[in-house]
Amino acid sequence: TIGIDPSVGVNPIKDVQGNAGPAVVSPAISGSLADALAPTLTAVTIGSNNDNPDWASAGDVITLMFTASEALRQSSISVHMAGRDITTSVVPLSGNNSFQATATASAGDPEGPVQFTIGFADLVNNPGDPVSMTTGNPASQVIFDNTAPTVTVNRLTTNSSTPLLTGTYEAADNGETVSVAVVVAANTYAADVAAGVWSVQI
Known about the structure:
Layout: E1 2-5, E2 10-11, E3 24-25, E4 28-31, E5 41-48, E6 55-56, E7 61-68, E8 78-81, E9 84-85, E10 91-92, E11 98-104, E12 112-113, E13 116-119, E14 143-144, E15 150-153, E16 164-170, E17 181-184, E18 187-190, E19 192-194, E20 197-201
Parallel strand pairs: 6-14
Antiparallel strand pairs: 1-4, 2-3, 5-7, 7-11, 8-9, 8-13, 10-11, 12-14, 15-16, 16-20, 17-18, 19-20
């Protein structure tokens, strides 16, 4: 509500010759202004506790962090990730209206980029537009991959004491990094990998 007292602040207007004009009233305003401005999320990031935080497999913990433009009513926040409601995992972080939500990836989750949606409202219940994308350049993402790559070994007959072993591999995802290690007589050799082919000199 706004209260205006028109009797406050009457100021005469004069020109350079001193001729007085009509009085102008500066009203005194008291009370509180209504908040009709919707909040926004100014920063949204996602990552996992996998050795590569841009990827996740079953059992990895995925963390979604977000910061709002103003204070949020925590009971208004809802978070869905990978088709699951993880709202109960939302906790506030110290400073700057920040929060995080976590979920443990499971074998039944859909493979590919992890999808999420954040719903929220400010302290007077103005809703913000739901957010389903991260911010930043480049924007962060987590790709869920629970399918192991396949590896083949080429048949080899040789009398060499240092044979070259070769084979092929196929990743479950084109962006996936594959490493191949060969164990011979309790010794481990890291293979060179490129374009679906691996090789290692023993």
